[in-house]
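REQUEST ID: PR-0412
SUBMITTED BY: lab tech R.K.
PRIORITY: routine
TASK: structure prediction, single protein chain
INPUT:
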Amino acid sequence: MDFLLNPFVTVLALLYQLLGNDVVLAITALTVIIRLATSPLLLQQQKSTEAMQLIQPQVKKLQEKYKNDREKLSAAQMALYSEHGINPLGGCLPLLIQLPILFALYGSITYALGNTPFQVVDLSRRFLIPSLDSLIPLNNMWLGLDLTQPPVFGGVSTTATIAAITLPLLVMLTTWLQSKLTMPPPRPEDKDNPAAATTRSMTTIMPIMFGFFALSFSVGISIYFIVSNLVGILQYTLLGKAHWNQVIPGLKIGGKPIGKQPMTPEQEREQEAILRRVTDKIDQMPKGVNPAVAARAAAGRSEVVSSKTKAIPGGESSSSSKPSGNNKKK
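STATUS: complete
OUTPUT:
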């Protein structure tokens, strides 16, 4: 992990030097830079999530039709994803890419705020620019709080006490607000969906959990959580994906309800045709063949045929341009 961690530590130290040896400003700047750099991944994740939600009515119909046959249900869902051009892992892959980056950012803050002799020596060997060694140790005091330690109530000053109380509350508030804004509005079909209920309960559990983290982790990490949440809220708002009407009813800022817009008759017929193609394909599979394996093979063959067709000059019209047997001789 050092190949990711050391560059982050170096950039944090550079920002610390450029921003007047203010480690809080350096943490804020680095967090903003990383969140902006990962914006394309966030957008891709959001698009994939919305696409999965839009086909949930069709998925529910498949679940009702194949409720007694899990293999056919799995194959039908895969075929449905293929028809809509959806990758089921499309929402997970961007997150998997972001996680190491966020862990490296978290680790760089932890290492940069180290104040024991061992931590100071370890920090100096992580700098990719040797001249930054002169900055060690970094100033770790802010508003009377030690950034390397958890918040202490009843500190050396009234300001420190107020900051110690305010930081965990801000962590909880910003975490709750970000979760609430990014949560799609409830739909009628989600009423009896245990997964949807679990997801919604996380908007309450996660803020409380992060609030306890803020009481146990260093103050510097709490600052990171707050800044990261605020940048996330701003990103979703600018992208029009923040559902502010769930926080302030009637406020029309982004966050268009997913799946609420009525479909045109043409769209309804198209969706029914897709669902019919999927169910016909699954129902016509011979007995003794694993439906899931057959569906994957069919999807792979269709992709290969499609790519070969595109490579042929003239494409699909090439077959129609060949003269028939009756027209060879006049």
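NOTES: The CA atoms of residues 166 and 198 lie 29 Å apart.
REVIEWED BY: pending
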